[in-house]
Specification:
three-stranded antiparallel sheet; 3 strands; 40% helix; 20% strand; globular
């Protein structure tokens, strides 16, 4: 992908990717490379899209998982011990 100059262009690129692929997962560096943005832009990008209701995301250890907000998230099934 090309280098994005504005937050709006990055938002559109991420939304288009999610529409095509369904979800995006990876480290901050991997996502930054994939979207062609600086690492420092990832958090503002995610926060603005989450605030507008377009995406949901989780941080697991050092990996991000980003999904469109319309994708249902199925909680894990707990065993009786849990």
């Amino acid at each position: 992908m090309k280098k994005h100059k504005t937050l709006e262009e990055s938002q559109l690129a991420l939304i288009e990717f999610l529409e095509k692929e369904g979800e995006l997962g990876g480290t901050f560096s991997e996502i930054s490379d994939l979207l062609g943005i600086k690492r420092g832009m990832i958090v503002p990008l995610l926060n603005s899209l989450k605030a507008s209701g377009d995406i949901v995301f989780e941080l697991l250890d050092d990996e991000l998982i980003i999904r469109p907000s319309s994708t249902p998230i199925v909680p894990p099934i707990l065993t009786p011990e849990q």
